[in-house]
Amino acid sequence: MISRVSSRSPELLEAGLTRRSEANWLAIELSGAWITETVAAREQDMTDLVNSQDIRSSQHVVLDLSDVEALDTAGAWVVERTANGLRDRGFQVEVAGAEGARKELLDVVAKTSQPEAVPPGMRGLGGLVERLGRGTVELGRDARDLLSFLGLCIVATGRSLLHPKRLRIVSLVNQIDQVGFRALPIVGLLAFLIGVVVSYQGAGQLARFGAQIFTVNLLGVSVLREMGILITAIIVAGRSGSAFTAQIGTMKVNQEVDAMRTIGLDPVEILVLPRILALVLVLPLLTVYANFMALLGGAVMAMAQLDIDPNQFISQLHDAVSVGSFWVGIIKAPVFAFVIALVGCFEGLRVGGDAESVGRQTTRAVVEAIFLVIVLDAFFSIFFTLIGV
Question: Measured between alpha carbons, how far is 356 from 368 in angstroms, rounded to an integer?
């Protein structure tokens, strides 16, 4: 925005600055064009003026803009900064010669240069209740938005079932490779180590009662029913759930998602559905793999610590666990996969227009997915106990 009071071209003018002082007041007269192209030459002069020591005797300072030929946002910002600097030193500052559009420009710059006042928060019990209330309201809004997003995903799934050609097979296969095959090393390693730890700790406790052989029972039941699927789901939430949020969030920042909507494409159908289907298909297989690796780790530790040979381990494991224990863990896998993928894609689509938002929503996606997985696992445990499985 440029305010002009002369027909002369502002590019031909320079930013002038003169001082005139009497008794206890000082007049700073600005002249010429105070615009982006010329104000840089005078910015240091204005800064030196604010910091100079020879104006200490002055109590009243007038910034006179009567002879200014042109003024834009850059010039107005320098004037406002100079006035604020003088006010901070205790001077009474008056800006004269600014009328009409020029006055409006200075007012706008003055408002934007002032930091927003942050309302003081309540302290003590009142502040705790206030924060609890705000958190509850925000949690309710997030739950409502997540349910709405769940509805969109269900509609997109139904549309794909009615029209299978709409399903992006190439994208689905790529996601299966990303979240499935490439996750095998980390899932296998951590599951193996979990089996080693459970076997080692269980043997140490059962040795007090001379029941070391029941370490195999402890390992088989805990891994097949709980540990295998839970550890796998947490790893996938941290690895694949965060990747979903980061990938979609980056597309949101680059306005690729908006471009899809502009040309009539559904981002849920193109970006979300392949990721959800891929994870639902892959997580049960990863769980079977994790169970095997955890039992293998436990068997290695049992053979090293308890001198249990492989045949004895397999026989004891066969007596300790049933097929039902295996299916208890596998049944949870598709549900956990759906929740992890849903939360990851949901938070990705909520990313704002900056890179910081990508990191923030990625963190939220991982935390929310792991929280929901553990809550659902608790519900499953209670349910299977009630029905006697």
Answer: 18
| Main-chain dihedrals φ then ψ at residue 155, nearest 5 degrees | -65, -45
Query: pLDDT band at 11, cuts 50/70/90?
Result: very low
- The phi and psi torsions of 249 (rounded to 5 degrees) equal -65, -40
The interaxial angle of helices 310-320 and 273-306, nearest 10 deg, is 120
Those residues with Cβ within 8 angstroms of residue 94's Cβ, 6 or more apart along the chain or in another chain:
60, 61, 62, 63
Query: 367 pLDDT band (50/70/90 cuts)?
Result: very high
189-215 residue pLDDT tens? 999 999 999 888 888 887 777 777 888
Instruction: Using alpha carbons, list the distances in angstroms from residue 29 to 61, 65, 97, 358.
Output: 11, 6, 10, 49
CA distance 289 to 294: 9
Contact 246, 348 (CB under 8 A): yes
Of the listed ranges 314-318, 353-357, 367-371, the least confidently predicted one is: 353-357
Q: What tokens appear for 229 in the block?
A: 């699927």
- Taking the domains of the chain in order of start, what are their residue ranges? 2-113, 152-386
What DSSP character marks residue 116?
P
Tokens of 269: 């159908």
Residue 179 falls in which region: left (phi positive, over 0), alpha (psi -120 to 50) or beta: alpha
Report how far residue 318's alpha carbon sits from residue 301's, in angstroms, rounded to the nearest whole number: 18
CATH class label, 2-113: alpha beta
Contact assessment for residue 264 and residue 368, using Cβ atoms and an 8 Å cutoff: no
Tokens of 373: 């997985």
CA dist., res. 374 & res. 380, Å (int):
10
Dist. CA 293–CA 377, nearest whole Å: 21
- The pTM score is 0.67
Q: What DSSP line would sit under 172-219, residue for residue? A: HHHHHHHHTGGGHHHHHHHHHHHHHHHHHHHHHHHGGGT-GGGHHHHH
Going through the chain in order, the beta strands assigned E by DSSP cover 2-4, 15-22, 25-34, 60-72, 92-96
**In angstroms, rounded to a whole number, what is the distance separating the alpha carbons of residues 29 and 45?**
13
* Cβ neighbour number for residue 88 with a 10 Å cutoff: 9
Measured distance CA(262)–CA(353) in Å, rounded: 17
